Structure to design on (825 residues):
């Protein structure tokens, strides 16, 4: 049943104690769930061959004496509970049920056999092996998350006990630096992600062991915290009776609620700015939105008294989290979202809006274990429908009156950067306070030791207003790591939360690590390069390249990607919350973290450039990206990105992109708009073996009253035919002949190739041009051979529409690459 919009007057509202620590039992079941299967790591490392529940519980005793936590780890399976002397209110029953839900085990197929022994050669299978009817068998070499992309391999690694021993040793060292209290709960979650993401959660003999130990334990923690709060708020504390004796009936209870938020207006907010300082402004705005969404996440989690283990996905202005289906909690969440939207309206008028929805669900629905095979998919469908309806009725009559009054007060004053008519900066009548603040923090954001602090007191340094769930004013303040540590020591009451980017900091309480695609080329002064500086680093024509890319059909893949259409007996058995969570996290890791490695360590290059790329990532989220830079390096990065993503996902997902080249002074709003149009054309592209999975380049051309995209190709054609065949043929000719065959010759070829489409006589003219430029008898044989091959290929390609257009695109790229500065006009 859809909960939709809740009547605020129907139920009493509980008081929210802002800033209070996490409920003690929520903390215990969350951490116990995160570590309940740690014995598997001990098995894989060869350190302890006992049953993993015993080795795991003894392991955790090195770090805490919390009896509830130890019992949860020792007794999280039915056969262990049956012989244990547990109290009726022991949280071990909660972790037991949560483990079953995360493992997709229910009363129909509970394993009551003796504890399994786990092979010390266990390998994690790729989550993409089964996605979209894929039939892959790839695995990962055990290891921790680091900046280098981890690709699945078809090779079957042997003798990986040494890798597991290294992981275990490092994990223990890091765990000893973390205090087992609620202030460090996110550090504990991040520590588990860092070290347990490439370890299988199931027996290595299982051919479908594609859920990592971290993903399994994280979902277990999310489910456990929801179950505890659901039962607590309903006055049900005999956990043995509720969850063990009546296990089957509990699986059908609507104990959970999937909550989702979708921020509207992101594109306009980021790109609708003036050209002056545009790159800094865009990047700061993108960064601010990222923190704004993450802060909303933490505000809602705080209301629910749960942790980031319950956050299933965040990226691109979207978020999903699993929360307890408790009416008072849902009311508080709804009130918080209303407050947040009022703050968005106050600060940004109608530019940004947070649509949201709730959908209650049962454990069986989360496991796809109901009579309705579409039950899991329907959770997301209903949520999407709720959010769409909310977007169509954003504002109440009071909201509209307030907006109109604000606009009338500032009717003749607009910010010259973003066009807003509100909150103009006190020191000037031309720039709003937000744009001034964005400019102030832009140089700080690129520093490697930056900490992103959310404070409840206005700081003396640079800051931007931040939203809160209760309407109090918060402040977003980037600062150096040392300053953050000093503030925690001297004024901890002023710190609401801290965010680090791409940096696990186990010694910093209240901190949350965010994976962020934040690669940014800097000049000699340590400042973000401007459009002009990036253009100057281009090979050939001094222009800016812009790339926008987006994963194809990702929403469908999330909802239906693990349905096995060829499995007639049980096509829905892999469609579960654990796989959805693992998939979303894997994609976020690629776009929010591994993307930096592609920029720092290029593989493909149109020219002979080496080293870090002259590129700035404006935005890279859960499934899409926007990058700018030297045009040749951006196009080269597009090829690397496609190749990496195809390898990373084993071809189970594809990506489409738009690429365009602009003068550095071209309005940024139009850069974004034109490139978005090309991205749309790439997504509309149909070719022989499929659709989408393409790149559209340069721009749209008028023809017979319409705009057409001549330079759109599927990636295989673009890489193998345009670049691999045509472009390389031009390069080879230029290598042999040097300056003899310059840009004029290529311009003439380009002219006749373009005219061939309408007048076939131009094929003869092209042949004549090629004959006129044949090497003389005095030329060496190598030059003659290369030119003959080139000439024959050009003539053959001119006769075929597809080859001819590919050659046109290749010539455009090459001409851009050899044009001198004086030729640009």
């Amino acid at each position: 049943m859809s909960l939709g919009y809740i009547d605020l007057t129907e139920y009493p509202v509980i008081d929210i104690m802002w800033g209070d620590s996490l409920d003690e039992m929520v903390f215990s079941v969350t951490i116990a769930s995160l570590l309940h299967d740690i014995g598997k790591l001990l098995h894989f490392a060869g350190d302890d061959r006992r049953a993993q529940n015993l080795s795991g519980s003894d392991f955790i005793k090195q770090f805490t004496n919390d009896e509830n936590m130890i019992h949860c780890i020792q007794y999280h399976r039915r056969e262990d509970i049956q012989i244990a002397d547990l109290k009726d209110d022991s949280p071990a029953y909660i972790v037991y049920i949560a483990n079953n839900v995360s493992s997709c085990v229910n009363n129909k197929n509970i394993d009551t056999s003796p504890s399994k022994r786990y092979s010390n050669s266990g390998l994690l299978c790729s989550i993409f092996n089964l996605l979209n009817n894929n039939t892959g068998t790839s695995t990962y070499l055990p290891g921790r998350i680091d900046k280098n992309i981890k690709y699945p391999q078809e090779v079957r690694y042997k003798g990986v006990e040494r890798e597991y021993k290294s992981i275990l040793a490092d994990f223990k060292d890091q765990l000893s630096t973390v205090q087992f209290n609620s202030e460090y709960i996110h550090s504990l979650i991040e520590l588990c992600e860092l070290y347990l993401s490439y370890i299988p959660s199931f027996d290595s003999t299982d051919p479908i062991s594609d859920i990592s130990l971290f993903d399994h334990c994280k979902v277990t923690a999310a489910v456990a915290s929801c179950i505890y709060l659901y039962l607590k708020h309903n006055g049900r504390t005999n956990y043995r009776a509720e969850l063990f004796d009546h296990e089957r009936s509990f699986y059908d209870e609507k104990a959970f609620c999937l909550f989702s938020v979708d921020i509207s207006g992101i594109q306009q907010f980021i790109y609708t700015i003036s050209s002056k300082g545009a790159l800094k402004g865009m990047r700061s705005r993108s960064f601010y939105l990222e923190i704004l969404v993450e802060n909303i996440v933490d505000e809602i989690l705080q209301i629910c008294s749960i942790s980031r283990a319950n956050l299933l996905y965040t990226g691109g202005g979207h978020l999903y989290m699993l929360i307890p289906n408790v009416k008072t909690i849902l009311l508080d969440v709804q009130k918080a979202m209303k407050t947040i939207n009022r703050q968005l309206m106050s600060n940004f008028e109608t530019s940004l809006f947070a649509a949201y929805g709730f959908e209650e669900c049962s454990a069986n629905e989360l496991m796809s274990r109901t009579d309705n095979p579409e039950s899991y998919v329907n959770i997301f469908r209903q949520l999407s429908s709720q959010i769409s309806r909310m977007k169509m009725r954003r504002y109440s009559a009071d909201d509209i009156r307030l907006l109109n009054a604000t606009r009338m007060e500032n009717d003749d004053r607009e910010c010259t950067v973003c066009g807003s008519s509100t909150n103009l900066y006190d020191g000037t009548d031309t720039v709003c306070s937000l744009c001034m603040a964005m400019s102030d923090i832009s140089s700080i954001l690129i520093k490697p030791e930056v900490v992103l602090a959310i404070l409840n007191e206005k700081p003396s340094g640079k800051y931007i207003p931040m939203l809160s769930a209760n309407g109090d004013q918060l402040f977003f303040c980037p600062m150096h790591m040392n300053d953050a540590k000093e503030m925690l020591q001297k004024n901890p009451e002023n710190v609401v939360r801290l965010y680090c980017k791409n940096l696990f900091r186990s010694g910093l309480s209240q901190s949350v690590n965010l994976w962020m695609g934040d690669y940014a080329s800097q000049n000699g002064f340590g400042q973000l390069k401007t459009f002009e500086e990036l253009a100057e680093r281009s090979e050939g024509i001094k222009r800016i390249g812009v790339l926008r890319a987006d994963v194809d059909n990702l929403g469908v893949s999330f909802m239906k990607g693990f349905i096995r259409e060829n499995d007639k007996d049980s096509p829905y058995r892999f469609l579960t919350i654990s796989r959805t969570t693992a998939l979303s996290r894997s994609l976020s890791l690629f776009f929010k973290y591994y993307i930096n490695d592609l920029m720092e360590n290029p593989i493909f290059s149109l020219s002979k450039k080496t080293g870090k790329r002259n590129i700035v990532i404006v935005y890279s989220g859960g499934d899409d990206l926007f990058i700018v830079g030297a045009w040749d390096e951006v196009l080269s990065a597009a090829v690397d990105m496609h190749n990496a993503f195809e390898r990373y996902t084993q071809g189970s997902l594809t990506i489409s992109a738009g690429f365009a080249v602009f003068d550095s002074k071209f309005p940024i709003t139009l850069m974004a708009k034109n490139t978005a149009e090309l991205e749309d054309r790439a997504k509309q592209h149909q070719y022989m073996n499929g659709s989408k999975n393409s790149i559209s380049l340069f721009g749209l051309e008028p023809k017979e009253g319409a705009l057409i995209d001549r330079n759109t190709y599927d990636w295989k054609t673009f890489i193998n035919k345009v670049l691999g065949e045509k472009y390389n043929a031009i390069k080879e000719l230029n290598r042999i002949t040097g300056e003899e065959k310059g840009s004029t010759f290529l311009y003439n070829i380009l002219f006749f190739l373009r005219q061939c489409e309408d007048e076939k006589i131009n094929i003869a003219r092209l042949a004549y041009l090629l004959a006129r430029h044949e090497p003389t008898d005095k030329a060496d044989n190598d030059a003659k051979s290369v030119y003959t091959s080139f000439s024959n290929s050009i003539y053959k390609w001119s006769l075929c529409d597809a080859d001819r257009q590919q050659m046109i695109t290749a010539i455009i790229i090459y001409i851009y690459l050899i044009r001198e500065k004086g030729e640009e006009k």
